[in-house]
Amino acid sequence: MKNTDKTIFGFWVYLMSDCVLFASLFATYAVLQHATFGNLEAFDLANLPFVFLETLILLTSSFTVGLGLLAARQNKKTLALSLLSVTLLLGLSFLGMEMHEFAKLLAEGSGPQASAFLSSFFALVGTHGLHVLVGSLWMAVLIHRVWRSGLTESGIRKLTLLSLFWHFLDIIWIFIFTFVYLFGSLAL
Amino acid sequence: MKKIHTYIFGFTFSLVLTAAAFGLAQMHLDSGHTFPAHEFAIVAFVVLAIVQLFVQLFLFLHIGDEPKPRLGLLALLFALLTVSIVVGGTLWIMYNLSHRQTETQPNVFTEENIFPNADHNAN
């Protein structure tokens, strides 16, 4: 097995373990979704237009990172850098929106300590957000690296890993917007 | 160039699935939680999410594209099995517990029980 393949497989196994981590956070959220202790319910968090915009941003960023990796493999440095930078901008926009949502909740006394439901909400959505933050930092570092050192074999391997990570985050988000926000809007 | 169409198709398809899900949710809200019905909405959301999962797995992550032995696919299947056990098992156990508690005991976590000496006149 080539070194590149081994690295990619190893990273994939890590992503699978991350999947199980998120599964436990989802399970916790499911169990605690009605433990609102007089504070907000899921329905109160379900601002559909806002979440739809967040979703579009993240989905588009998953698209652009895929295109960026293709460009990198075709040795098109400027195109790759542009696409990766767009991805980073979209990721940061997503984070900005999410931090705004969290700040508002915290300010009105509906933070993670306010109820079991809110604890589980912040744990699930917050952990995803942290992953996006780390991914964004990683993206910035790789953009700088490609800009300075060009598209080397190891650089492309790192970009492959990052794109796997980024796609994975969008997949997790599919389940967050469905089970937290869409289900929440139903006011079950 | 052979792969770019998978990204374009994956993106477009995901957009449609996402818009459909949010559209349904908004329709449900606008109609005062009547149309579509709760049951239909729940099933629709789950189905749309799972379809989008597969779209992104195959078209963005290129699952199944690898040469044999398909270790990546194997790892994914094992992870999905673990996830089913974790989520399914948790929901089964917790529902069972809550069902048993409500059947046999009153709710222990009442305001009176937690703060027995609370002064109801104080603010």
Explain what you see.
The complex is a heterodimer of chains A (188) and B (123). Chain A has 6 helices and no strands. Chain A has helices at residues 3-32, 42-45, 48-73, 77-107, 116-149, 153-185. The model of chain A has no long low-confidence stretch (mean pLDDT 96). Chain B is mainly alpha-helical and 123 residues long. Chain B is 71% helix and 0% strand. Chain B has helices at 4-30, 38-59, 71-104, 111-114. The N and C termini of chain B lie far apart (69 Å). The model of chain B has no long low-confidence stretch (mean pLDDT 89). The chains are: A mainly alpha (188), B mainly alpha (123).
Strand/helix succession of chain B: HHHH
Total DSSP helices of chain A: 6
Strand content of chain A: under 5%
General shape of chain A? elongated
State the distance separating the first and last CA atoms of chain A.
Answer: 51 Å
Assembly of the depicted chains: heterodimer
What Rg of chain A do the Cα atoms give? 18 Å
Number of helices of chain B: 4
- Mean pLDDT across all amino acids of chain B: 89
Rounded mean pLDDT score of chain A: 96
Please state the structural category of chain B.
Answer: mainly alpha
Largest sheet of chain B: none
* Computed CA radius of gyration of chain B, to the nearest angstrom: 23 Å
Strand runs of chain A, count = 0
Secondary-structure element order of chain A, N to C: HHHHHH
Cα(first) to Cα(last) distance of chain B is: 69 Å
Portion in beta strands of chain B? under 5%
Name the structural class of chain A: mainly alpha
> What is the total tally of β strands of chain B?
0
Which bin fits the share of residues in helices of chain B?
over 70%
| Pair of chains with the largest interface and how many residues each contributes | A-B, 43 and 42 residues
Topology summary:
The complex is a heterodimer of chains A (188) and B (123).
Chain A: H1 3-32, H2 42-45, H3 48-73, H4 77-107, H5 116-149, H6 153-185
Helix pairs in contact in A: 1-5, 1-6, 3-4, 3-6, 4-5, 5-6
Chain B: H1 4-30, H2 38-59, H3 71-104, H4 111-114
Helix pairs in contact in B: 1-2
